[in-house]
Design brief:
Layout: H1 2-40, H2 45-53, H3 57-65, H4 72-82, H5 93-96, H6 99-109, H7 113-123, H8 130-138
Length: 139
């Protein structure tokens, strides 16, 4: 009986330790990616980000050094200020999408208003892709 309880305590401790280490790894990954994004955006980007989220620049510096903790509200504010979805704080989109798809997206994003509208109408004739769903259901 005693050995069983001891095993449960050890197992519970091991699971907590694993969770903490995994969480710390994810936070480190996010901090590293945030530094990459800020480096890509050039000099003064930390100050601009701090201003955009309404925090002092020292907060961003502390985040990048790992001295401060990220929370959900801060992550949301950072993503909104950088105009990126939250998943991009974990991985570089260039590593997710094949080069061909990246080229297509870059070409689409470089289109002007009228040309972009033509492409949108060709892709989704009814404006929201409902026709594509109807075809899929008919098959």
């Amino acid at each position: 009986m005693f050995a069983y309880n001891e095993f449960r305590v050890k197992r519970k401790f091991a699971m907590r330790l694993w969770f903490i280490l995994r969480q710390r790894h994810m936070i480190n990954l996010m901090i590293h990616r945030l530094e990459e994004i800020l480096t890509e955006r050039g000099r003064g980007s930390k100050a601009r980000l701090a201003e955009a989220i309404g925090k002092p620049p020292s907060i961003i510096t502390d985040l990048c050094k790992g001295n401060d903790r990220l929370n959900d509200d801060l992550i949301e504010a950072i993503c909104r200020a950088l105009k990126i979805p939250p998943w991009q704080l974990f991985v570089d989109p260039a590593k997710v999408y094949p080069e061909r798809e990246q080229a297509i997206v870059r070409a689409y994003n470089s289109l002007t208003g009228a040309k972009k509208t033509v492409v949108d109408e060709l892709m989704f004739p009814d404006g929201n892709g409902a026709q594509q769903e109807k075809k899929a259901k008919a098959m």
